[in-house]
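User: I've been going back and forth on whether these two constructs are worth ordering. Before I decide, could you fold them both?

Assistant: Sure. I'll take them in the order you sent them. The first construct and its structure tokens:
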Amino acid sequence: MNTVLHKANTRGDANHGWLHSKHTFSFANYHDPERMNFGVLRVLNDDTVSANRGFGTHPHKDMEIISIPLEGDLKHMDNMGNSTIIKSGDIQVMSAGTGIMHSEYNHNPDRPVKFLQIWVIPNKRDVAPRYDQITLDVADRHNKLQQVVSPNADDAGVWVHQNAWFHMTNLDEGKEVVYKVKDPVNNGVYAFVIKGAATINGEALKQRDGLGIWNVDTLDIKGDSDTELLLMEVPMTLSA
């Protein structure tokens, strides 16, 4: 088993006033050659956007972009004609492919919106741009794992152009779950503690800590408090 631990207070910090972003991996003005990615997981940004503010229209290309709202409502618009609101319990995915233009704004006039912005390097370049979002029943992750991302359009959650699976769980204190790695030969798992504290394969994690694990078949996860956790299984080798 190999591991890499990223404590919450070691992340890059970018405070633009209207946007406060914590970067697990190198992004924009934050650069650390030791923290460029975890396999094909390229970006994990923990964003807080002030009321009535947001990201103006900007481009993306050849990237799978997943947004997971944590608090508040986020408005999305793009050049494919999508104009939607995503909120806690929703999962959004964009396959940027040959190119997409979009904007994201805090839809709330009186409070910040908090969300995770995640970029996964695809296994296919120049695909047709695609947008999707779904609303999940959060009760289905209470003391068990709920799949929210997969490589298969017919499977649970949204799908991406990559051999990747994301799961979320809300564990009561003392509860345990076991995650079985889908592709233990090629993949690793990056665990991110959204709230609370957990122990994963003997490693104690606090809120907003991240732990990458590879060369392992299973993850033994215990809630050390009431805990919200995101697991991202991704290939460890770039293939696009």
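The second construct, handled the same way:
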Amino acid sequence: MTKTSRALRAAAVVAMGGAAAFAGAGTATAAPIDIQPTPLMCPAGIAEAQSLTHTENEAVDGDELFYAINQRSVGGATVSWINVNTGAAGNATLESNPGVFGVPTALTEPEAGTVLSAIWGMHENEAGEQCFLLPGIDLAQVPGESETD
């Protein structure tokens, strides 16, 4: 391996480590949503959209579902969800969260059950471009509150 190759590999490792630290502990263990949103009208695109339940991270309550687009930005996209077991539904906006290094996040409370959600609409990416997101779809199992919580 040449010195240039070693330097490039080291730079890549540092960059990946920095990206993981930037994302914060909460989103580092999040799962990508099943079908990612498709950004239109913004050449830089967006980072991966993720969702997180209590099963993946105890910081999320049992009846909550946490969403993030893993890059620092203003946000603006809409999260629409429906609990297919209870019929409960709602909307939330992905907004820049200073507690997660400016990553746009949304916290919903669909309660226990199978939750179908879509991330869509106008969203400002890290490059400051206005993107229109064709819906990304997620199916998550929200565990609900346990008796010990």
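Notes on the second construct follow. The helical segments are 3-28. The longest strand covers residues 130-142.
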